[in-house]
Amino acid sequence: MSIEQNLSQLCNVSSDKKNEHLFIYLTGSFSLKNLNEFTDLIHATVKDEKPQETSIDFSGIAYLDSAAALALIQIQKFFQSNNMECSFVNLTGEAQRIFSVIHEQALIKTPLKTKTKQDFFLIQTGDAFLQLVRDFIEIIEFVGNLLFAFFYTILHPRTLRINDVLFYMRRAGVDGLPIVGLISVLIGLIIAFMSFLQLKQIGANIYVPSLVSFAMVKELGPIMTAILVAGRSGSAFAAEIGTMMVNEEVDALQTMGFDPIRFLAVPKVLAAIIVVPILTVYSDFFGVVGGLIVGVTGLDLTVNTYISQSIKTIKVFDIVTSLIKAAVFAALIASIGCQRGFKVRSGAQDVGKFTTSAVVSAIFLIVVTDSIFAVTLYYLR
Amino acid sequence: MEIKSDEPIIVVKNLTARFGSNFVFENVSFHVKKGEILVVVGESGCGKSTLLKMMIGLHKPSAGSVTFQGVNIVAASEDELNNYRQNIGVLFQSSALFSSMMLGENIALPLQEYTNLDSAMINMIIKMKLGMVNLAGYENHYPSELSGGMKKRAGIARAMALDPIVLFFDELSAGLDPVTAVELDDLIIKTNEALGTTMVIVTHELESICKIAHRVVMLDKTARGIIAEGKPQELKEKATDPRVRSFFLRQLPENVYQDNAYGK
What we know:
The complex is a heterodimer. By secondary structure, chain A is α/β, with parallel strands linked by helices. Chain A is built from 13 helices and 5 strands. Chain A binds chain B through residues 31-33, 35-36, 61, 63-67, 70-71, 74, 92, 94-95, 97-98, 100-103, 105-107, 109-115, 346-350, and chain B through 1-3, 99-100, 102, 104, 111, 115-117, 121, 124-125, 127-132, 136-141, 143-144, 160, 162-163, 190-191, 193-196.
């Protein structure tokens, strides 16, 4: 009896049974591309015929790859485990060479390392807490080193890489102007519009300019700018230093006798401290402009009235504290970005992990610091 | 199981690489025969890696064609290019293993993407490929846990995952110790002999070239193209071109001091 079936990829499996001995003839190309088809067919043929002995004939094979050879070995093992003799016959020289590189020991060798299993919930919680403590200690240590590097730079101003400072000022500041301006105008518009909807019910439209300018200068200007800088520059600092860590550039700096923090972090932190307060003033201005657009077009206020109301509300104290706040935010964003960058050890995944961590930590610290400022300034006033 | 023959499997014709007004090479033509190990050599900056990247379809040449089994991959559609990429394997200079994945996952990736094999069969193929490169048992290791030579071997295992027709290697043994380099050479020879895979290798290593190459193509920066082609032993012994001789005999060109030394 003989069956013959054509498979995709030009291979053919035929069989012939003589006295409980089944001969399976393979002809054509046997590769990864038709592996499932020919293995299913061989299994089906053997299942139908139920022989005591099977011989797989290789004389007609034109192409065989290592995956197909492995599949045939697996078939042979399967039949043998079911108490059926199975042998390969008429192996060509090429087929023999392919079988020679498939090591039996490698196929049954257990992995040298087992996959790491998830720990029990309590252990995970404990680990997370310990990680938090370690993280806090590392940040304190980094801030100490950074302050030391700053003092060193103040005492030795010639060691400051001024070109780097200017470069990062452009990156964090000038390049960020369009997005900071756009977001600030929109925030100003939104506050003016939302407050107008409420204040018009009691006929207090005139307080819209005061509310917009107060909110922008006191809180939203510094916070929005800081969050944008954290997203744009904090992440960039972490990714840049992280990639340098992976490429052993930081190790090279150390072996050349440079302090990586003084060389890489100080210019970035200094540039951020200079540029973020300026960006904040710019953000405040555009926020007020956003409110002005709503005030003039929707509230029938004149430009002069709007501006004079705004100026009346804002005190010098508010502007100065807003700028101090912005400088503190800048120091936090740049420091945490650099610190996270230095924590990268290997690979692209680490860079991604610590870049995300830099942004999340910076935003968290911005909000915490802003709360501290709010309480402190209330009592100072 | 490719049978070695004189039939060309890849034909490179009039290939030109130009960046702005700078020509890296122009009108480079050669072919790769089925089942052979072709080594591309030449001094740094002569365009070996650029040529390799054009042959694997990563860079578009300024002019010329690269034909694989009748399809010009320079002008190929995305589908044709994808089909070509399933028939080739590439080992990059840095191995380029995915650091976030274990070795087993690195090898499984193309198998999961391009075949409909079940996970048990994929696991067996992973074990087989790792066994072929003497890394049996390392499927749960991350690339960061391996040495440079092991990473290269793991990279070869991944490149061979789909049993490609052609394997490309960029700087096969660069930065490896001599023993590891010899191990890699043996692995290349064994793989070529057993599986019949065609191989295109870019390297500087003279010992490797002489040991593994069936044929050598030599590029030169000043000539902006091929200056020699042939069997390594023949080039070493019979080449008359001083640039070829100085490369194979590891000698400085005769005029090197006149041209470069003491600022002249």
